[in-house]
Amino acid sequence: MLMSHSLHALPDDGSPDPSEEFVALLTQHQRVLLAFLLGLVPKREDAEEIRQRTNVVLWRKREDFTLGTSFRSWAFTVARWEARGFLREKGRKSWLVYDDEVAGLLADRLASLPVPAIGDRAIALRKCLGGLSKDHRKLLVARYDEGLSFQECAERFGRSEGGLRVTLHRLKIALRRCVVKRMGGGS
C-alpha cells in the first residue's frame, strides 16, 4: 500500500494511520542510519547532520514509500545521496573515502545485518581507515573523494596506473581484514 494519506486526513475505518506507521519506521531506523553514515563520513557531527537532512527528505518523500517493503534499504539510498551532496557542498578534503559503488555495497550489506553489528562495524571501519598511512589516505581521497580516474591518480602520484590499481586493491583487502579482526572474526 502506498503512503497515500496526508497527515491531516486520518482514516475513519479504524486502520492505522500511514503517517504514524511511517514515523514509527523512521524512529526505529535512526541508530542504523547513523551507523551507516558513520561509515561514509569521518566526523560524527557530519553524520548527524546528514542524518537530519536524510530524515527531512524521507519525510517529504514518505508518500513514495510502500509500506511492507524494506524501509532500511530505501533510507540508505536516500542517505547515500544526501551524504554525496553534503560532501560536495562542504568540499571535504580529508581522509574520507567515498565511492558510489562502495557506498552501495555497504548499504546492501548493512541492510541485512542486525543493528548492533552495524554500529560495531562502522566503528571498526573508521578505526581501520584512521590506521592507514598518510600517503594511502591521500590516494584513497584522490580516487574516491575527489573522483579522479586511475590515470589522473597515476599522474598526480607519479606512479603507473597498474601499480595504483594494485595498491588500491590491496588497501581494500587490508581494510576488510582489519574490520573483520576488530569485529572479533579474524585470527
Chain-wise SSE layout:
Blueprint: H1 18-28, H2 30-38, H3 44-60, H4 71-90, H5 100-111, H6 115-130, H7 134-145, H8 150-157, H9 161-182
What would your notes on this structure say?
The protein has 187 residues and is mainly alpha-helical. It has one domain (18-182). It has nine helices and no strands. The chain has helices at residues 18-28, 30-38, 44-60, 71-90, 100-111, 115-130, 134-145, 150-157, 161-182. Helix 3 crosses helix 4, helix 4 runs antiparallel to helix 5 and helix 6 packs across helix 9. The longest helix is centred in the C-terminal third of the chain and has 22 residues, at 161-182. It starts with 17 loop residues before the first helix and ends in a 5-residue tail after the last helix. 24% of the residues are buried. The model is unreliable at 1-11 (pLDDT under 50).
Distance between the termini: 47 Å
As a percent range, the share of strand residues is: under 5%
Give the ordered list of helices and strands: HHHHHHHHH
* Category from helices, strands and their pairing: mainly alpha
Q: Compute the number of structural domains.
A: 1
Number of beta strands: 0
Q: What is the mean predicted local confidence, pLDDT? A: 78
What would the principal axes of the Cα set say about the shape?
Answer: elongated
How much helicity do the residues have? 55-70%
- Poorly predicted ranges (pLDDT <50, ≥5 residues)? 1-11
Alpha carbon gyration radius: 19 Å
- Individual helix count: 9
Sheet of most strands: none
